[in-house]
Amino acid sequence: MPSERKRNLTWVLTGGGVLLIILVILSFAIGSHVIPFGTLFRAATAYDRTDNDHVILAHLRFPRTVIGILAGCALGVAGAAMQALTRNPLAEPGLLGINSGAAAGVVTGLVFFPALSSFGGILLAFAGAAAAAVLVFTLGGALRTPSNPVRLVLAGAASAAILGAYTSALLLNVPTAFTSFRAWDAGSLQGRPWDAILAPALAIIAGLILALLLGRSLNAAALGQDLSRAVGASPMRITLLTGTCIVLLAGGATAAAGPISFVGLAAPMLARTLVGPDHRWLLPTAMILSADLLLAADILGRLILWPSELQAAIVMALIGAPVFILIVRRRKLVQL
């Protein structure tokens, strides 16, 4: 790794890590009820169940912040992996139909199993996301030799349309399920209990570990199948492992926080601009930047309409997209 790029990596990771710590503290403090910073320290060192601020921190702000970090990391890394797999710098996890699959799973639970717990709903969302990804990989011939990334994207678009029609049909015939679905579909980090975090968290952590181990393989995948074989890599193995990684990451994030777009596109592209296309450094950089982006969007959403709030996914779309377009227009993008 060139010394200049190594310095950039050090600065980016250090700066991103420091920013994440600041955002975590702000996430604990800011909301419809503002908690003083001194109370944060007292709650961490001497928790008091009778103190209302301590209870809010333990049962509302803490799980919300954890979901924001995990979902952000997952979406950023999944986006980088998806871009390498399809050799398309504009790809993001939604191309595999994961958002549509998770939505179909949530609506299925609301309509056919209305008494299902929040944990059960999360599992159905994750199952729907995984099933959609498997369907897309099968229809797109991802495991064929040679495979075609364009076919994979087209299969994702077709599957998303079918699953979207299924979701709409159920919601139109069972209007009572729409209110609950809308709360999840808005992409909010609010109101997620601890029991609903466990399964997605385990999937995301497993996916992050797998992704970081695939850095060299993703470098080969970005070269194309012919060149990747020339350097001794197995395209089919890379596709299978990368697909598993994307399902774990994007499926877990979508199940826990709802469909949140733009993070999986913006963070990898910004990381590629800062540290280059080598996935050994790109993946950890995208992981930090995406967590910063999502947590910052969530905090900003609490401030814009205070004491009410705006969902993180809406903030990302309204504010993040124009800023990102400006960055893209001003700077030359680094190729895969």
TrEMBL record:
Q: Which Pfam families match?
A: FecCD
Instruction: Select a single GO molecular function from the record's annotations and give it.
Output: transmembrane transporter activity
Q: Which GO CC terms are listed, alphabetically?
A: plasma membrane
Q: What's the domain of life for this entry? A: Bacteria
Listed A to Z, the keywords are: Cell membrane, Membrane, Transmembrane, Transmembrane helix, Transport
Q: What is its main location?
A: membrane
Provide the transmembrane region boundaries: 12-35, 62-82, 94-113, 119-140, 152-174, 194-215, 227-250, 310-328
Task: State the annotated membrane topology for this chain.
Answer: Multi-pass membrane protein
Task: Name a single GO biological process.
Answer: siderophore-iron import into cell
Location(s) in or outside the cell: Cell membrane
- Spell out the family assignment given in the record's similarity comment: Belongs to the binding-protein-dependent transport system permease family. FecCD subfamily.
Q: What is this protein called?
A: Iron ABC transporter permease
Which species is this UniProt entry from?
A: Mycetocola tolaasinivorans
